[in-house]
């Protein structure tokens, strides 16, 4: 069966990922970074739309996310810790971090709030128990657990007015919303923003646009959802891949939606059917996104 495709969705990098994740737009470089968190991959990539080139770095271990560092370079969220990376030299320096039991948990997706604090989720390394935690990390301090009880922590985003934090738990499949206190860096009032029970896919990575709509990759359903502030589906963007994993706004005016995807778990027949599976995709979103803040590290 041919998967319906929204006009304009294109594969923009020839690199094929096992599990593409963590897309991050760098305005200073006019480039998109992302990682392959697949079991055998251990790579960081950078795509430059002006020229269409992709650079690839080998990483020492499996990564889960990428953030900008305020003093330059990147903060890599590895599954068992954080590190600072200088893409120019390839140097990677671990960041000391207490407060996380990596014997039980592994990090997954992350995002930086507008005060420069890193928020990162975890989940059970064995994928059996809801022991995942949403952490807040400030430089020089232990990771602080802000909420817990998640099966597979994933995308994190904030509303344009900075009053709401959104957080995806891919299993069983819910997006939560919290009241966000920007000054204190606190959350309260957890509530279900959208429940994916009965749907073909589950929420994975997400990004916020300038109009206050949340864009979410629905992995397994082959589409990106745009949700209004009440949690209603405003539109669904059909893709030529069944497993989109995450999204980021970038390009001129932050109007290009970049989409990572995966081949992991696909049958050989599905890979043949989905020629762009595992590739970085891009499409004109028709609306601008928000610039991602840098971790004050």
UniProtKB/TrEMBL annotation:
Record-annotated SMP-30/Gluconolactonase/LRE-like region domain positions: 19-262
InterPro entries xrefs: 6-blade_b-propeller_TolB-like (IPR011042), SGL (IPR013658), SMP-30 (IPR005511)
Pfam families linked: SGL
Residue ranges of the TM segments: none
Coiled-coil stretches: none
Family the entry assigns: Belongs to the SMP-30/CGR1 family.
Identification of the protein by name: SMP-30/gluconolactonase/LRE family protein
């Amino acid at each position: 069966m041919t998967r319906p495709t929204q006009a304009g969705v294109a594969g923009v990098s020839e690199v094929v990922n096992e599990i593409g994740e963590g897309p991050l737009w760098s305005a200073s470089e006019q480039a998109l970074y992302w990682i392959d968190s697949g079991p055998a991959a251990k790579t960081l990539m950078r795509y430059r739309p002006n020229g269409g080139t992709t650079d690839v770095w080998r990483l020492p271990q499996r990564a889960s996310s990428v953030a900008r560092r305020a003093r330059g370079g990147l903060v890599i969220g590895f599954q068992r810790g954080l590190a600072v990376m200088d893409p120019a030299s390839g140097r990677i320096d671990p960041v000391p971090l207490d407060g996380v039991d990596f014997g039980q948990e592994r990090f997954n997706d992350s995002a930086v709030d507008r005060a420069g604090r890193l928020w990162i989720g975890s989940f059970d390394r064995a994928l059996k128990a809801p022991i995942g935690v949403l952490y807040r990390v400030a430089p020089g301090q232990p990771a602080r657990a802000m909420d817990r009880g998640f099966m597979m922590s994933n995308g994190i985003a904030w509303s344009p007015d900075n009053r709401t934090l959104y957080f995806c738990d891919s299993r069983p499949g819910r997006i939560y919303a919290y009241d966000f206190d920007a000054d204190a860096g606190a959350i309260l009032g957890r509530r279900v923003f959208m429940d994916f029970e009965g749907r073909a896919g589950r929420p994975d990575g997400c990004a916020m646009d300038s109009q206050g709509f949340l864009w979410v990759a629905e992995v397994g359903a082959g589409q990106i959802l745009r949700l209004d502030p009440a949690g209603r589906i405003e539109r669904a963007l059909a893709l030529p891949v069944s497993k989109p994993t995450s999204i980021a706004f970038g390009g001129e005016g932050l109007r290009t939606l970049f989409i990572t995807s995966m081949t992991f778990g696909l049958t050989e027949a599905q890979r043949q059917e989905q020629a762009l599976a595992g590739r970085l995709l891009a499409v004109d979103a028709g609306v601008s996104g928000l610039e991602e803040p840098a971790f004050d590290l």
